[in-house]
Hints:
The protein is of the alpha+beta class. About 30% of the residues lie in helices and about 25% in strands. It contains 10 helices and 20 strands. It has helices at about 100-110, 130-140, 145-150, 185-195, 210-225, 235-245, 295-310, 315, 385-400, 400-405, and strands at about 5-10, 15-20, 25-30, 35, 40-45, 55, 60-65, 75-80, 90, 95-100, 200-210, 255, 260-265, 270-275, 280, 285, 320-325, 345-350, 355-360, 365-375. Strand 12 (about 255) and strand 13 (about 260-265) form a beta hairpin. Helix 6 packs across helix 9. The longest helix has 17 residues, at about 295-310. The radius of gyration is 25 Å and the shape is globular. The chain starts with a strand and ends with a helix. The structure holds coenzyme A. Coenzyme A (COA) binds next to strand 14, helix 7 and strand 17. Coenzyme A binds next to strand 14, helix 7 and strand 17. It holds the Pfam family 2-oxoacid_dh.
Amino acid sequence: MCxxxxxxxxxxxxxxxxxxxxxxxxxQSDKASVTITSRYDGVIKKLYxxxxxxxxxxxxxxxIETEALKDSEEDVVETPAVPHDEHTHQEIKGQKTLATPAxxxxxxxxxxxxxxxxxxxxxxxxxxxxxxxxxxxQTGAILPPSPKAEIMPPPPTPKDRTTPIPISKPLVFxxxxxxxxxxxxxxxxxxxxxxxxxxPHFGYCDEVDxxxxxxxxxxxxxxxxxxxxxxxxxxxFLKAASLGLLQFPILNASVDESCQNITxxxxxxxxxxxxxxxxxxxxxxxxxxxxxxxxxxxxLNRLQKLGSLGQLGTTDLTGGTxxxxxxxxxxxxxxxxxxxxxEVAIGAVGSIKALPRFNEKGEVYKARIxxxxxxxxxxxxxxxxxxxxxxLWKSYLENPAFMLLDLK
Length: 408
Ligand code: COA
């Protein structure tokens, strides 16, 4: 059976002149999106696909007429199977030019030949800064902010999270039904969720008082910010989950299809359900068991940035062992999370809300309350285990100082 990739962005049209390594289009498979670059200098003679068409792996993508082949036949760029390594390399006159597709695109947009740029990255890799420096030298152009500055939001201000999010898109009523094929990442969702349906889900919910954690994050957020990292609540949720998984390893396990064997995973690769332009993606933070909260935050920033650019790669999207979904950053209180096979457990957290609660003295105080909903594979996990894990996770988050005792 042929693998399929969807053509999602096109950078050239028929008649355009292209050079080697110029971006031709972006294709998306059910795992990643990749920029296809030209192998030749020449003129685009034929495009085989329109935007959002399904391109067949190994079939022609575009015909390019090269100088050498003028009046004879044209060279053909084929659709590759994606994903391949996002950091592609090509040969130029016997010399390797290393650069990511984004850097190649930046070079192309500014008519810069990569062969003329000196790369300052590992093994001479050409970085975005190298292109910008080159451009500055050529044109005296002012450099845009560094990538670190790009991901930095303005200094945080306290917000009321219960404010409804306004509808930002115009409402369009066409009056007609519309049918379209399910493609790209959505196809993965169909496959994964259909497989998940075979798992008997056990659900367990509780509320967590994050009053102390909210205070702690307010203190740590500017410090992390000064070190170039945006610190949300997720890194604490992930670290607390990992500490819990050390005590309840069955929740960080997988079962084979016939449910004969359980594999206890050594790494805590915790997936985060991410709402992206391309739909729901679940990249994972690798080895949370050996990461500090700051390191988790930094990795989460990286994944969020890649997610927003549609550039999450296969490594980021595979190998998860446990998942946490923060639907609360959008809204809502409860969820019914669906396990991502071959994982066996998943948690979903709702919005943190200011609510009245009683302290030990029976006095009412303003608490920061968040609800958590867990789902576990009931074939191998019983309710008591899920409940004990949840209690432990909750105790770390309600008393963040407890985490210090167990952090490595
Ligand atoms: N309640 C209240 N506020 C929350 C919150 C919650 N549950 N979760 C996050 N926030 C706050 C953050 O602290 C941050 O506030 P700040 O600007 O004061 O620092 C703000 O909301 C934005 O956070 P965000 O950038 O979304 O980071 P995050 O680490 O909390 O979440 C993702 C990262 C990837 C999980 C999130 O961006 C996302 O995609 N959520 C949707 C997940 C989804 O679709 N789930 C359903 C799967 S079926």
